[in-house]
């Protein structure tokens, strides 16, 4: 009889402890999800800002060289064409990612 009482007390203690741990860990997981959601929103905002900056830089590069004044034969023209290529590649990549969504 004493064995049953001790066993029941131990089982009650273990189940109480495990119940508390489940409750505590559920709260921790909920907090992590909230932090992750906040991080994802901030990251999306950063991506939108970067995309806007890339589009603006792309439009400015096109506006600056609308007459083809920068020839690739000189140093400034080579630099301009390299920058234009980088910005065009970035714009194409961002446009492709936005079309996938």
Q: Would you give an account of this structure?
A:
The chain is mainly alpha-helical. The chain is built from 2 helices and no strands. It has a domain at 31-100. 88% of the residues lie in helices and 0% in strands. Helix 1 crosses helix 2 (75-100). The model has no long low-confidence stretch (mean pLDDT 83).
Sheet with the most strands, sense and barrel status: none
Structural class: mainly alpha
Give the termini separation: 67 Å
Q: Strand fraction band? A: under 5%
Q: Return the string of H and E elements.
A: HH
| pLDDT < 50 runs, ≥5 residues | none
Kindly state the mean pLDDT as a whole number? 83
What's the number of helices? 2
How many runs of DSSP E, i.e. beta strands? 0
Overall shape: it is rod-shaped
Q: What is the helix content?
A: over 70%
* Multimeric organization: single chain
If you compute it from the alpha carbons, what radius of gyration comes out, rounded to the nearest whole angstrom?
30 Å
Secondary-structure blueprint:
Layout: H1 2-64, H2 75-100
Structure summarized in a few sentences:
It is built from two helices and no strands. With 101 residues, the protein is mainly alpha-helical.
Descriptors:
mainly alpha, 2 helices, 101 residues, 0% strand
